[in-house]
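Protein modeling request. Please complete all fields; requests missing the sequence field cannot be processed.
Requester role: graduate student
Desired output: 3D structure, token encoding
Chains: 1
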Amino acid sequence: MSWIEWLKQLTVEDILGWFEYLRSLGPLPGILLPLIEALLPFLPLFVILIANATAYGLWQGFLLSWIGSTAGAILVFLFFRLFGARFSQALQRRYPKTKSMFQWLTHRGFTPLFIAYSLPFTPSALVNAISGLSTIPIGTYILALSLGKSLLVLMITLAGHDLASILESPWKIILVVGMFIVMWWLGKRWEAKYHREPTA
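Delivered output (200 residues):
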């Protein structure tokens, strides 16, 4: 078995064993592991988030996972933003339709990115790379990423920490849905303000 296949098959118990070995580092492993997952997307994100919640508790585990996952995504975005300009230009010359996609993402990027980062099966690494290759404002990207990732991490953390409690307490599902709507609305307001033409 290759090391990639071994990493793909990590269990919560494996990660908890690492945390026990590295407990002298405090919360740092809980941040670094989801950060590394953003760089190596074949790692099992669900397992990592559940392990964080188990090791550090529900809310601290959520916070550490969110910080690490968001920071890792920003690193990927910045890499492609700083070093992918030539590749982006070549891609647009070879596939002209990508130019329209990048322009659309630049001007209306908050909603699709927010929804993409909120969904559990979105290929986040690909979204990070495409965002970096586009000219979407970094503020819009970070806002959509931060809000979307917070919902994704919260949903997985809650479900992994105590799924039975979620099923027995519908208000928790309503809370997550309500947070999604409120965050989307706030993000759209910010995006509209950013793109508003200055008055004479």
